# Entry
Amino acid sequence: MKLTDRLLKIASLVSKGKKIADIGTDHGYIPVYLLNKGTIPFAILADVNKGPLENARKEVKYNNLIDKTDLRLGSGIGVLKKDEVDEIIIAGMGGILISELLEANKEVAHSVDKLILQPMQAQEELRKYLLGNGYEIVNEVLVKEDFRIYEIIETKYTGKNTILEDEIYFEVSKKLIENNDPLLKEFIDKKIYKYNSIIKKLEGKNGEAVEAKRNDTKAIIEKLNKLI
Ligand SMILES: C[S@@+](CC[C@H](N)C(=O)[O-])C[C@H]1O[C@@H](n2cnc3c(N)ncnc32)[C@H](O)[C@@H]1O
# Structure
């Protein structure tokens, strides 16, 4: 089993010696890799669907890891009890779904040392949820796989909300700027390209709503350019 760059990067953020849960585990590659390496002593592999959980079970059996794992069928972190694990991974799902899963079981979400979240879309919405609901974004990293850049968020509940001085930081995390992430420029360039395509699509169109959209989009591009 060879982990892809995205999965390897997620795995690298797990702390040594900690018990983890991988929610929406599907193939189970991350926990199996970390157990085989001896990074972690125990993992709970969970998925809401039977097929993916059976994939994970096969992987666990093939690697002789039955004693170090628990496989659970169910939604989100509802499958966990408080203090069963130290860190939780939720990767490969939408940002809104991830925030709903955290909201659905606050007792567990608030109790763990670290949540490693890798939203496939709605990253902005997820950051808004986290910062407005007492979570601190401890770190963020970018990883490129094929042509896509993925955002990985490390977060922890502190009970304190964070107010950002500008909405743009929901879209481009401050942590990426602070860390001068090696992929930051390419990540922002991709966003500028996307917003320029929106402006192109509006060419030749008129009206108040179109004008407002054009101005908002231009303002975002200007802010993005300043971040580079
Ligand atoms: C695209 S796969 C991601 C697999 C793996 N985590 C990764 O990042 O490669 C999404 C997985 O999440 C599972 N899933 C979707 N909604 C879920 C939920 N509410 N609770 C747990 N698992 C869920 C799906 O069954 C699927 O196996």
Remarks:
- The pocket of S-adenosylmethionine is lined by residues 23-26, 46-49, 52, 75-76, 91-93, 101 (CB under 6 Å).
- The longest helix spans residues 208-227.
- The radius of gyration is 19 Å.
